[in-house]
Amino acid sequence: MMVRSCIRWLLILLWVSTFSQAICGQAPTFIDCSLLVAPDYPATWPTAPFPRFQITFQQTIGPDSAYNIDTLLIDGNTGTQLDVPPHSVARPDLKRPKSSPLGLSYTDRIQPWQFGGEACVIDIRDLLNKAPNGTSPLVLTKHVQRFERQHRLLHFGDVVLFRSDYTDRYYRPFPLGQRYISDILDGKAPGYPNPDPTCMDFLATRNVMTLGTDSASMGPLPDLAEPTHYAGLKHGMIWTEAATNLGSLPSTGAFYIMLYPRHKDGAYSEGRAFAITGGALPARLIASITAKRAVDLSPVMAQGYPLTSPGSATGRHRQVYLDVNFLYSEYLDMWHHTHLLDSMAGTHLVPPSFSLPASEKPVQYAPHIRGWLEEYEKKFGKRGTSSMTTEKVPLEWTCGEARVIDVRHLVGSVNQRHWPASPVVTVAHIKAYEAQHGDLKDGDVVIFQTGHVDRYYQPAPADQFLWIDPQSGKSEGWPAPNPETIFYLKDRGIRCVATDAPTLGGVDEKQALMTYWALGSNAMVGVEFLYQVDQIPANSYFLFAAVKIRDCHGGLGRAIVLH
């Protein structure tokens, strides 16, 4: 009998061990929870004077440019978006009934541990369209308690996501897109489901600090939008509005996060929401968030800072970063503003289509670029083509184990006679790193630590040290990899290469273009303009996502690590 019992327990332990190994070894699945932003979609709030989203293809690959360069006009209330306390909470100095220190918790000041956590998906599909035209069905405390009876009590570190499938059903190109928001405001259709103020206060008793909804806004129409916003934001909550695809998440257990450009003094922001399921990764990231172990890697974006390239010659500058005020809130003493900016302002994505044409049709490059292409193809093979714009880059390509390669020792190594030039990060430097820290692995994110942005990111008139002086040959450029290094990283299974310098290309135009061709032709992406890379601890996981803009050849985004 005892032998049988021992055998039975051994079999159970073997099964548990096998099951645990299968779970831990399972590859994670990334689930996009963000709407596509495009001019023909109802991506922006439809009432005047809210500006409509615009993308301008400023330059395209051809005689005048080796790159595809875009300019964006984008408001924080665009697509999948984030709200923070100053959306409804007044600054303390105003001394108004809704004043609080939280009135200073702008988007650039929210700590990155609050961006995400364990997704707790509350199913409210039974409320969809269960209200008169122009009116929202209300999510009540009892609906949250129903979830808790079915699953578990909510607690700090959870992200409560209200799933009605509203965006899945109604976010469509125009004219069908009128149903998304406009028809509700015009009294032609029922409103989207959302919590009432009492429900928000109840969630605060559970210490829930982060929410999300797949409705167009967290506020029920027509009269409870502001009361519900204030009821949650007064507690320091933040939330995702206009999420989508929440039906692909389990009720609990998934890791969810909302990443967004770090605009200065923003009361809301456009962003990118996604979830991760499968394997051991979600639990690891949830534990980091709950313990507040997070490092922000994106500098604050503000007018007057050197966020975009001034170009190497007159008339070659990229669109500077501009705040555009359009609506004044007297109670909050705050201007609502949109931004006019280059699609690669601040921390951003470099997709393959930035430097590669979309088809095999011959490109009428300028003569000197044609010469560079011949030299490149003779050495590395065909340059290749790509139609992979920002919205087509898989989220898992820009997330992975952070492998920081310190190349600061290269600073000062280029003789002044050769300026403008950047120190070259070579294959030998990568191999030296691997010899000390272990081989790079498939899916790692390689981050080059140059220290350049940390040192030189200053407002005018000190802004020339970041871009202008290196590009004009008045100072040395920042360290940057050459094409051979990119090919080596590709062989190691690397999909994403990042840097805390302005660009991965450096200041030598020929080498820069060849480096971007190498990235694109190897189906690799870049993340540029990081900072605080020296704050990344060992065993950190890098997370970056760009706003999901259709046909965009750059990508506004946010980078953090969890450890």
Textual characterization of the structure:
The structure is a single chain. With 563 residues, the chain is of the alpha/beta class. The chain has two domains: 30-43 and 78-292, 3-Layer(bba) Sandwich (Glucose Oxidase, domain 1); 334-562, Putative cyclase (Glucose Oxidase, domain 1, 3-Layer(bba) Sandwich). Helix content is 23%, strand content 22%. The chain contains 13 helices and 25 strands. It has helices at 2-25, 141-150, 166-170, 182-185, 197-205, 225-233, 281-290, 367-380, 427-437, 452-456, 468-472, 483-491, 509-521, and strands at 29-32, 54-59, 69-75, 81-83, 116-123, 138-139, 158-163, 194-195, 210-213, 238-241, 255-259, 268-270, 272-277, 294-296, 322-329, 334-342, 348-350, 399-406, 424-425, 445-449, 480-481, 496-499, 525-528, 541-546, 555-562. The strands form five sheets. The protein has a nine-stranded mixed sheet with strand order 1-13-11-5-7-9-10-4-12. α5 packs parallel to α6 (225-233). The longest helix is centred in the N-terminal third of the chain and has 24 residues, at 2-25. The chain is globular, with a radius of gyration of 25 Å. 50% of the residues are buried.
